[in-house]
UniProtKB/TrEMBL annotation, chain A:
InterPro entries hit by this protein: DUF7350 (IPR055774), TAT_signal (IPR006311), Tp34-type_sf (IPR038482)
Stated name of the protein: DUF7350 domain-containing protein
Annotated segments matching region Disordered: 231-300
Compositional bias per record (Basic and acidic residues), positions renumbered to this chain: 234-300
Residues of the DUF7350 domain: 329-450
Pfam families, A to Z: DUF7350
From TrEMBL, chain B:
Organism of provenance: Salinadaptatus halalkaliphilus
Upper lineage: Archaea, Methanobacteriati, Methanobacteriota, Stenosarchaea group, Halobacteria
Disordered: annotated span: 31-67
InterPro entries: Dimeric_a/b-barrel (IPR011008), DUF7405 (IPR055828), TAT_signal (IPR006311)
Designated name of the protein: Tat pathway signal protein
Endpoints of the signal sequence: none
Transmembrane stretches, start-end: none
Amino acid sequence: MPRPHTFDRRTFVTRTGTATAALALAGCLEFGEETDNGAELETAPEVIEVEDPPAAVYIPTHREAMRMLDPIEAGDIAIAPMLSYPHPFWIVAGSGEDAIERVEPEDGRGVHMMFTVWDRETGIVLPVDDGARVTVERDGEQVGSPLSPWTMISQEMGFHFGDNVSLPADGEYTVTVELPPISTTTTGALEDRLTDTETATFEFTYDEAFREEVVGGVEYFDESFWGTTGALEPMDHGDHGDHDDHDHQSGDDHHGDDHHDDGNHDGHGTADEHHESADGHGDHDDHGEHDDHDDHGEHHQHVPYSALARIGEYPGTILREPAAVDDGVPAENADLPRSGDAAVLVTVLESGSRLADGDEGYLLVSPRTPYNRVPLADMALSVTIERDGGETAELSLTQTIDGEYDLHYGASVEALEAGDSVTVTIDSPPQVARHQGYETAFLEMEDLEFVVPEVDGE
Amino acid sequence: MTLPDRSSLSRRDYVRGLVAAGGATALGACLDVTSDGPEPDVPSGTDDPASLPDRQHAWNDSLSTDADGTIQLPEHHVLCPLALSDAIADGTDIDDERRETVEAGLQTLERAYEWSNEGLVFTIGYTPAYFARFDDSLPDSVDLPDPEALTAQETPEFDEFDALLHLASDHPSVVLEAEEGLFGDREQLNGLEVETDLSDVFDRVVQHRRTGFIGEGLPAEHADVDGVPDSIHENAPFFMGFRSGFADSQATEDRVTIEDGPFAGGATMHVSSMAINLTQWFQQENHYQRVSKLFSPDHADEELAGEYGEALGGSSAMTPDRIDATEADARERGVVGHAQKAARAREDGEPLLLRRDFNTVDGDQPGLHFVSLQDEIDAFVRVREAMTGTDLEVARANSGILHYLFVNRRGNYLLPARDARAVPTPTSDSTDV
């Protein structure tokens, strides 16, 4: 491997702190509004553009700061709300160049509201949307229209739901999230579950202390890193001392904030054992670890990061690129074949697999972000299978969430033989909104050709 | 309901607020500020009820059309829910005398106002809950089930009162006056003495009263309402920013008419009330994405819609090819249009629904009262299933406009033919009154 792809927080050079660093780095903020005590209202840090980012996953200018609220359990699922400052993101509807649009935050008070939803039994982060409905209230009055949050991926947060939400004033807010049943095909431990609408409610305080925490907590990286290929480490990963220190620094600045959650810091402490997330660090802990974290009690529940399993944990025969058919299985996620910078793992499960129909085998295609292994949802994939130069099958794959292999695209197939060619066609790229660093990747996605290797080569 | 504050609103917004508020005081204020003046020039109706169409829902021939031939609904609408008054709520006293009262009241409206945009058009419909009080069931020729949730995402409340008056006029004062006249708070309607009102038979269910508006430029007038962005096109007739109601995407009045049985000549009506998130739609999506999601990705690629649908003229351009492409668009383009999806429910190429929906800011939130006529409620359900599109392999946020709509209420109604519109029984043939 030529270079480390993930970016850990020791590399950051500037934290905006309160005003000083932001001004030094980003110039004067001109929001024109003042807080109650006459200070300038700083609702978001200056947004810095990366010039000519590559058409690939790249390192953004900064690491977002956020406040994590207590996870809420509701039926089969748990929801972890997170709040940051309103910031740009990109929404995707289609595959052409007009199909992606940068969303500019509105001026004034507001939050970037996010939440991660996971299945409590398996710990799997649910990476699909079936029409979540969010309503925000203040003093019993609804604020704005109801909204369906976007499905989003970010390097720090992995898959989550989110949107910018404008707020009329400082104060206490109550948020209700309704999550309808999952309609995506589910298999294994998820089959016949997640069938009820679940509702969760949380509260937060929006005030100067919050703004100081999330605006002041932003970490800017050295400019030389901006736009270079690679990705930030997931926020739940390692370095908790640093992270805690960072949170407490901003946390110390505010008073009387009920929602600043010490439990989360403990949560970070337990995160290591459940979830390492970036490449090249130890063994992947199985999602089944949930029993363990239940023991910590609800206030210590950590928020899982939506990382897929490592290559070595997939069963069956991992397919290779034609030029690498005699090499071993790729060691690292980043070594997998890429399309539109997505790493694509393809494996064929033998006949008798619980995922296959009857006696057939099962072709499992798992596109993921190249560094953090975040599943890429809401794609349309098809495959063409050829043997001895003749086409033997053309199949549309079905998006599926499995209790063990998480999100993938799959189909039952007749037995494949060594030397068979499997071409994966991306009919449409992931229709998922993106935070900075992902918006130029996973859009123009070329076909990928794979070959079934000799099983002895495994 | 308190009246809107004149000083803080545009004239049109103030008037809209008055329609929403309802009542005699609102009507007085409305007459004070509209260009009509205290005695608006509203054309009178007819003394000959037989000259009016047999069908209550026969509005089209009397409504105006735009330059492209698209029928223009009246600009101002009120949905006025009614409950049988307590004395007759058990149904046993619904007799010819009550029918005469209701019929006389409704004929008063027809005498007072021309059946047109400039005058007044209206319907009265009855819920399954209304018919449930009778020993007899509705005949098989009428498909009027209780309303129910139609998607996994919604948990609507239901219209369980007895009846609904839908009043529509280009004059805001007319819809207010008509409503007041029917309930005894007005001595004259458009200069005509009111002899009979409905308050012996019906009580108004004010908490479920709904109002709204439609027409080029009206949505943009409400940009001061929380949740209505400034960026909505100044000429757009609907909150979603585009024209709608094209002749080729509307069922004909014949198509939605019940053909057989005692309610032949009637129709069914579905009313769903929903909030719309216009912030995401206008502030976050781009025009290309909006056209893709509202019409079809082909409409976006071919730039068929123009800025607010004006380039379409009088046609939705929803060709069979574009309808047939829905499934392929879902997989290969990652997005499908709302109109494209819904058009899959057409039968023999004909749309099943006659939409008479309108925008609202009831509750100071942007929304839509979706009023749909069809020969049977099941036709609405089939179209809604096609629009929901659970069969399509596409991200929900890119499946038409599902992502932006939040259904809060649903109601099903029977609109009897005009001669059976007054408190009918489930088996009553046209009742002579």
